[in-house]
Design goal:
Chain lengths: 112, 111
Amino acid sequence: NAGVMQNPRHLVRRRGQEARLRCSPMKGHSHVYWYRQLPEEGLKFMVYLQKENIIDESGMPKERFSAEFPKEGPSILRIQQVVRGDSAAYFCASSPVVTEAFFGQGTRLTVV
Amino acid sequence: GQQVMQIPQYQHVQEGEDFTTYCNSSTTLSNIQWYKQRPGGHPVFLIQLVKSGEVKKQKRLTFQFGEAKKNSSLHITATQTTDVGTYFCAGAAGGSYIPTFGRGTSLIVHP
C-alpha cells in the first residue's frame, strides 16, 4: 500500500506564476488535509477536504489559494500569482476516518 | 480560536539523558496525537491518546494525556542519536475534525 504521494517534491516558480501541488492519498482514505510549514515552525492548517467537498478552509488565504479533491484523481492545491511569502513546505495528509493522519513527503515551493 | 502551545522549542541533551516535551491546549481536547519529523523529512504519526489520564508507552517513549484533557507530554528515556528530530503534538477540540499542531520541540542529541 503506497503512502501519501505528493508531487512535485520541489517546485520553483517566479513571482506572478501559478503553482500546482498534487496529493494522492493512501488507498481507501477519503479525508485530505493540507498544511503549510515555514522553516523551524509548526504545521499551519490550511484546508480539509473529503471527496468532491471542501469541509473546512478556514486556514487558507481568501485570495490566490484554492483547493480541490475531485471524484477521480489527486487533490490539488493551487496558488495563483505566487509571491515570495508563499515559499514554504506544503504537506498533504490523509486519513481513512478522523484519526491519525498520514503525511506525504511534502512539496518545497520556492518563489524567486 | 484553539491554540496549542509546546515547550521547550529546542532541547539539547547528551546521549543517554532523558527528554520531555510538554503540550498545552487552550481548550479541552477530544484527542491528542504526537508526530516526529526528522530534519528535511515529513511528520510521522507516533501515537494518539483519547482518554483522560491515559498513559501509553512505546519502548523508550512514554506519552501522557492530562486528566483535564488539556495537556500532554512525551518523555524519552535514555535518548539516542536516532531520536533527533522535531516532536509535534496535535490536538482536536471537541467537535472539530482538524488537529491543531503545536510549534514542536526540536531535540538535538549530542553523542
